[in-house]
Amino acid sequence: MSVDTSLSEASRAVLPRMVGRAHVRFAMRGGETRLSGLDQVAPLRVLFPRTEVDEPPLAAVTTVSGGLVGGDRLDVSIALEEGASAVAMGQAAEKVYRSTGPDSQVEIALLVGPGGWLEWLPQETILFDGSRLARRTSIDLHATGRLMAGECVVFGRLARGEVMRNGFLRDTWEVRRDGRLVWADALMVDDDIFARLEAPVGFGGARAYATALYCGPNVTDHMERAKALTENLEGVRAGATCVHGVLVARWLSEDPLALRGAFERYWMEMRLAAGGLPARLPRLWYI
Fold first, then answer.
1. Structural domain total, the chain
2. Is residue 257 assigned to a domain?
3. 112-154 pLDDT, tens digit each
4. What is 218-245 written as a DSSP string?
5. Which domain holds residue 195?
6. Is the residue at 282 inside a domain?
């Protein structure tokens, strides 16, 4: 006699899911940027590793559960008050596991006050075959605020020979300056993901993509540099453009490591040029 151990649809519907929260706020105090607010709920935790003396404070956002499953919801916000500077990043790659139906939902809010500088540098999001992810990144900055924000996505556990064949991804961006929407972008792929990855008019064989934004009052000053950094890359297709005061760079590659390297070089050069900060990334990026 065999025993059916599969979950019924009704059972799946009542499985408890995680609702995590990480809200971080920085402010200028005594001439230095200091943490002024922290609200966190598991599975999200925020760590504050020590940084070099010439670097802004670093907030490392960690998913202690090890990844997301269908129905999980994460709410992250990083806010800078007037004149503050900070870097926020993921402690490690974010894994999104196969879903039995519901989406994993991630809401990210980045707020930059007058004269602020913020870097949002998540590590790769790895989409397992059959995973479902709906993510929105919302940016609101003052006219004098500056921000670099990025994202890398890998379709499948490629190191194990798995390519994402089916699932769902909706990845949206919204950028507001002084509350006014100046740029929005949305990517949605579902069902037969593999066909879209292979399509010449889709991803053209790519297995990973990355996006980097720079927003600030002097965006056009960095356009030529951004173009130079996204040209003639071995194994990576990339480009940069400026839309309504938002500098957008994108990368596609069959090799996530090659893409990561190109993204890394771009980020280091742009933070030096636009932010006057050392051309390096936090140590966590290399762990």
1. 1
2. yes
3. 999 999 999 989 999 999 999 999 999 999 999 999 999 999 9
4. TGGGGHHHHHHHTSS-TT-EEEEEEETT
5. 17-277
6. no
